[in-house]
Amino acid sequence: MQPFIPASQQVQLPLFEAFFANPVLPGFKAREQPRKSNQPELFSELALRGAPGHCQSLLAPVLRELSEEDDSRWLTLIAPPASLTQAWLRDAGLNRERILLLQPGSNQNALQLACEALRLGHSHTVVSWLGSVSNSARQQLLRAAASGKAQSLNIRLG
């Protein structure tokens, strides 16, 4: 029998850490990832599948958190879907004064625009909708993010 611990004293693990701490599948073990001196990952991806409205509901808190970063730089959104309008940003509770929405022009594609935004360093995070990212594109984004001391987040909708 486990001792009773009041809710105010319980430690809550983040969702995935809790799963890996107590694996559900027999024989499943989480791999230990080497950590780099509290340095954040420069490139991340988030894959969302399902109805567009549900995907937007899942995406809203992520973007809201990023729009409220203590960093004084921008949260830049590169080539977001047409459904992410100014009204949606407002309704989702994002700090619109800290967000740049950029669409690629005729002389550059979304990957080039994302790399340029990362390299310039005016954004703490550049969120892009590039679809599946090849290893070459990933390396470009990593180099640009390192150069601008920024983070790259690619959203894959499917």
Automatic annotation (TrEMBL):
InterPro entries recorded: Cell_div_suppressor_SulA, P-loop_NTPase
Domain of life: Bacteria
Residues of the signal peptide: none
Protein known as: SOS-induced cell division inhibitor SulA
Gene: sulA
